[in-house]
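Could someone model succinic acid with this protein?
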Amino acid sequence: MATAHRTDRPTPCRSTLTLLAMAFVLATAAGAGAQEPTTDRESAEARDADALPRVTVIGTGGTIAGTSTTRTSFQSYRAGQLLIADMVDDLRPEIDEVAEVTAVQFDNRPSGGYGMEDYFELSLAIDRALETADAVVVTTGTDTMEEFVYWMDLTVRSPKPVVFTGAMRPWTVVGSDGHANLFNAIVLAASGATTCYGTVLMLNDEFHAAKDVWKSDGARMDTFISRRFGALGSVDGPRVRAHRAPPRVQHCDTPERWRTPFDLSGITAEDLPRTEVLIGYQGARLDEAVLAFADAGVRGIVNAAGGISAEAREAAEEKGVVFVRTQRLRSGGHNLLPQKARLLLLLSLAFAEDDEQAQAWFDEIGAMDFEAFDVPVPEG
Ligand code: SIN
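Reply:
Sure, complex below.
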């Protein structure tokens, strides 16, 4: 809970980050039945309290790793060309004042080139890195970054900071946003400000919650928007400010509630069922698509805005298809964007004992909020 109120953080603070992560580790150990404190704690104690935070930067490609045709060809470039180790080196020596940075190359592709099996492996890679690092930064393309961050938010087990970043301009043009975004993402991760926030997205000096954020523009650097809730906070030079927090921080002291049921270490990528999205529109007739999906073995369909008849739905349900509803709206209460609803449905179906449990998880996790304060309203 404490993290929700930690604002105006002037410098990366090693000791606070360590304390929060240790509190979670100890709570996990206590919940697991009087285990000895983990090696995380021992190594944290053994290290010098003034040592810089250790941040692992995982590169996956995208525009941020792009090389432009000329120094001013902002829109003409090849994404996913540069190695993350070289990009981190470009930020030296300044970044060495912020954190002890290690670079790991996961792959080097546009964001749309990744599938569910890659998401699966990336999530495990992040948790592996967090066994020794204090925080992780991941660079990806921005086109599907909102899906990357929501998947990681749902699956990463560690409460340590996980920060995604990218760029709207390739690394090699004048005025690229890539350098500042990568630098600020490392500052944010090293600060520890987002411990227990889950995965966040940092671009254009602002960081956003995984569930709320979406890409709104194909060219502008302020492309990422968090619907009507707004950004979580900002990074201005060394100063990290948090204005609000995702609801899951309220469970920071109880790891079994903070973590989702989606522990990927217990399954394989082949266990992930196929789930698809159908977008409704005026006069839509989606029955043929529904029946084709059912015949192809699809297990879950996100129905955004209707257009499916009761007959087609029943025929698909008989073949084992589970339907969930969401809306096309970018904003509005607990509404999940269709592409994020699909990820939550996929994971719910992969882990639930039965379809009722999958539906219950979908409703509960997709709509998580701060615990409500019910005010008695006089009736009559
Ligand atoms: C991509 O998503 O890989 C390309 C676009 C971008 O990174 O902004």
